[in-house]
Amino acid sequence: MGNIQWRGTATALSSVAHGAETRGLVTMLRREQIIGPDGEITSIPLVSGNGLRGRLRRVGEELTRQALGYENQLTIAAAAALRSGGALVKTTGEPISGQALAQLRELVPMIGVFGAAGAGRLIDGCLQVGKLIPIATETIDLISGANAAKARLSVEDLTEIETYARIGEAHETTDGSPMQFRIETFRAGTVFDVWLNLTHPTPAEASFFADVLASYCENASVAGRSSIGHGRLRFDLDVTPTAPCREDWRASTKAGSAEAIELLNRL
Hints:
This protein has helices at residues 49-68, 76-84, 98-107, 109-114, 145-148, 155-158, 203-218, 249-255, 257-264, and strands at 4-12, 19-23, 26-29, 31-35, 41-45, 116-118, 121-123, 127-129, 133-134, 159-166, 179-186, 191-198, 233-240. Strands 1, 8, 9, 12 and 13 form a 5-stranded antiparallel beta sheet that branches. The chain has 267 residues and is of the alpha+beta class. The protein has one domain (4-19, 45-160, 187-264). Helix 1 (49-68) crosses helix 7 (203-218) and helix 3 crosses helix 9. Helices cover 31% and strands 27% of the residues.
């Protein structure tokens, strides 16, 4: 298959915290330097593509687990490869390659989409995830034309400092009051430019990722502190081509579950 791309926006339904450096008691948003429309270098806050990719990977692992039913059957290395991407470490076994790797990709489209590290090698995935760039006057040269036209506010307008208190004796000040801390966040209502791309996926990989994305978007969140309501998003995406190939990836994965689990345990 050719490339499949999703482009559009993500709107913050609650404030978004994506912490980087801490200045005193304030945890600042992740920032990168860009060249703005005026040709000057400026610093903007954004959400890393890795943050979104990690959330999508966890959804993909859940769908894969449902299809394969591998509870308590995977090695620690195989479970880590699916859940977090694994780690490239020395191994005494033979690296998985050739026909075995092709069969693993066919039976477990999660591997073909997200990739993994295991068995002494890196397995590339076909998914690329763009950074979530706030639609602002400073970023109009970095985002798609349709989204750039929506820029009305500066990145300074889109951010705020929220104040919280740590509860518990260990976090009390000398006078017994709770210790306060502050977090820089994107305000609720901030709109981000978003893109995702699958490079030459198989029909099973394309169908698998379409299911991952649909499941994630039902209750999407990104970055940190989601347990206290931060990072909730609404996605509005268009896909090209408009009718990507659909295949019942679950049927083939379930049919080959025993072989799939054996191959995963070689990672």
